[in-house]
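Can you give me the bound-state structure? Components:
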Amino acid sequence: MREVDSETMKIVVCVKQVPDSWAEKTLRPSDNTLDRESVDAVMNELDEYAVEEALRLQEAQGGEVVVLSMGPSQATDTIRKALSMGADAGVHVVDDGLHGSDAVATSLALAKAIEAQGADLVIFGSESTDARMSVVPAMVAERLGLPQLTFSSSVAVDGGTVRTNRVTEYGYDVVEAPLPALVSVVEKINEPRYPSFKGIMAAKKKPVQTLGLADLGVAAGEVGLGAAWSVVAEAAARPPKAKGTIVADDGSGGVAIADYLSAQKFI
Amino acid sequence: MIQFTTEHREFRAMVRRFVETEINPNADKWEAAGIFPAHEVFAKVGELGLFGLEVDPEFGGQGADHVYNLILGEELGKADAAGVPLAIAVQATMSTPSLAKYGTEELKRAYLAPALRGEMVTSVAVSEPDAGSDVAGIRTKAVRDGDHWVITGRKMWITNGTQADWLCLLARTVEPGQEPSTGYRGMSQIIVPTDTPGFSVGRKIEKMGNHSSDTAELVLDEVRVPVSNTVGTIGKGFQQQMSQFQDERLMGAYMATSGMRRAIERTGEYLKVRHAFGEPLINNQYLRFRLAELAAEVDILQQYNYSAAERYAAGQDVTKMATIAKFKTGRLSREVGDIAVQFHGGMGYAEEHWPARYLRDSRLIAIGGGADEVMLRVIAMLEGWERFA
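Here's the bound-state model for the whole set.
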């Protein structure tokens, strides 16, 4: 266990830029990866909760909040958004060789970047709205040998210890780990703040470090589409919505609906 | 041409989110109540820095360029009910600009800074029961008594009036025993705290639209305020107020234009999903072309607004452009509101859908802040077409 002075605690928050949840998403015909250029990009909603939680911990105890994102050049907008909310500095992992990275490769690049930062606490949103796998936080923790406190609905730091409520099917477990540690947060853990006008202006002057694969000491063959453990072989457009079935009620409508739902295994 | 920077875009996203999470979910409730909790909402607006965007940070402002106010107006204009945006716009661009521009340091610290931080709610008090767009007809008088003004009169159509902490009031200022002047001369702008004895809210006025915004008739019965509460030069109130109106008219035009754009887009969406005679309504060329024509006019107005904003930011006189923008958006809003209701048929007339409220709310644009006819008077004057004796 490392002694952590909460006043100098360094929190790294990982954020991801994703296509707007409401946008129609498509795959690039050339390599079946997500087309990130044709849709509006926003900060992954769950990551807003992660940033907010980091800022609250910082406000309560001091320390520094660094926001880390891996993504194409436009992901700087997402880093900037976190900075305008109040984070102190940004790290942008960007490299053409990362294109098409799966969760395993992503966790490698993020782990290397976090290691370089020397974080006392790492905070993630529990999943991204585009891939929705929820595995990257656990993978990163494993790579760094950090205790992982996932699916947290509350986070408290006391000296060298972090304590969270871990959401379960039946309620929550109270879990505790020594720092440094990694936490992932669920939605509604807090109410993410708006960036104020002052925050937006201040973000302009905050430092953002850009790191490529070479800076992280990651070999090109370990990441990217070529290293992915799964391949999208083919994709087809969503079929058009089929016409619904209309049941004319001649007195037996209720039975007809029940039969239909039963045939579809809804009841 | 206006170049929107990354910061401008982030600011737009922030205001949009504010509208979508703080105003829209409460719109129905506040419309039904006929009022909104101004102190509570303004505290949030102030925290985000939306009041006084162009004002010196030393007095609670943000020191931003005018494009931020343009963006603020455009995003507020898209809210589900225009009442709260109107109330915000009053504090941002109608009750505070004169104080920011002409006020003394003490006055700015005492009244401007807390208003821009959202700790105080404010109103601009110019119109009276017998004088609205014709500002030169006001009769409220402030008689000097040593270091104080003793103000008596009535103010009408005052937005935020039932909740305001202070007013930027226009009155005829006179020395004791002197007769008040007539016409444009002898007026002054005075900051009047509403907790001063003699001040009262005469009544809350029921209106056709903008229900969530409270509008009041205010009564001033020998209200004593220090002469040091005078904004700028004694006797120059009319000119200062005219300058303040310019900010108001530009903001009104920004809000109205984006509101029209949204109404046209929403109507188009409805015509796509509503079927009649076996096909979507949008397939009717008349409906499609009518919307296209309105969209074209809104587009021209938006570009006109941008041009005005740019000149304003460059410090040029935009009296004529602000007047034209206010006039044209007011006129066009009446048409857009009518078409939105008409093209929605019964759904347009029903209270459960948006067009009825839009029609009511947007009808104000051609009346508030100087009616269309007053705008035409100004434009005619600026063109050199005065009446002949």
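A couple of observations. The CA atoms of residues 200 and 219 of chain B lie 5 Å apart. The domain at 6-121 of chain B is CATH 1.10.540.10 (Butyryl-Coa Dehydrogenase, subunit A; domain 1).
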